[in-house]
Amino acid sequence: MATNRTFTMIKPDAVENGHTGAILEKINAAGFRIVAMKKTHMTKRDAETFYAIHNERPFFGELVEFMTRGPIVAAILEKENAVEDFRTLIGATNPAEAAEGTIRKLFATSIGENAVHGSDSDENAAIEGSFHFSGREMF
Ligand code: UDP
């Protein structure tokens, strides 16, 4: 069932580089409503759990290292067709392949350090949102 919600993280590279405000502005301008949001710092165990689906991939160690090197901003976003529209807003995983004007084209530096996360399905959006937020933090 479509939930009309997605989950995002502004990743450590974008937070470090001072892009949090500009990214939130793009999200707001695209019509997403913030259901929940916080700045947090993932532990190694958090990142290994969150990205468990990638644990056999060659970049897994690097990804965990990257996602734990500094704070992130995690948020649950709401909008009609949220998952798909947010993936369009952020652009391709590799910023070199991302469309002009997308968040990754504007703010990412590499395929690994690519500024933002966006859930890839309604099911994962619900799982990922619940990973970071309790029901009492969603409004
Ligand atoms: N990633 C990486 N190297 C790669 C592919 C992915 O470091 O060759 C990282 C990157 O940060 C990416 C995350 O792993 O966002 C998850 O990969 P996925 O293929 O699910 O891409 P996404 O859904 O984030 O676009």
TrEMBL record:
A GO-annotated cellular component: cytoplasm
Cofactor entry: Mg(2+)
GO BP field: CTP biosynthetic process; GTP biosynthetic process; UTP biosynthetic process
Superkingdom classification of source: Bacteria
Catalytic residues of the enzyme: H117 (pros-phosphohistidine intermediate)
GO MF annotations in UniProt: ATP binding; metal ion binding; nucleoside diphosphate kinase activity
Keywords annotated in UniProt: ATP-binding, Cytoplasm, Kinase, Magnesium, Metal-binding, Nucleotide metabolism, Nucleotide-binding, Phosphoprotein, Transferase
Catalyzed reaction equations: a ribonucleoside 5'-diphosphate + ATP = a ribonucleoside 5'-triphosphate + ADP; a 2'-deoxyribonucleoside 5'-diphosphate + ATP = a 2'-deoxyribonucleoside 5'-triphosphate + ADP
Residues engaged in binding ATP: K11, F59, R87, T93, R104, N114
Subcellular compartments: Cytoplasm
Entries under Pfam families matching the protein: NDK
EC number(s) recorded for this UniProt protein: 2.7.4.6
Function of the protein: Major role in the synthesis of nucleoside triphosphates other than ATP. The ATP gamma phosphate is transferred to the NDP beta phosphate via a ping-pong mechanism, using a phosphorylated active-site intermediate.
Subunit structure: Homotetramer.
Family stated for the protein in its record: Belongs to the NDK family.
HAMAP family: NDP_kinase
Name used for this protein in its record: Nucleoside diphosphate kinase
Organism expressing this protein natively: Tenacibaculum skagerrakense
GN (gene name): ndk
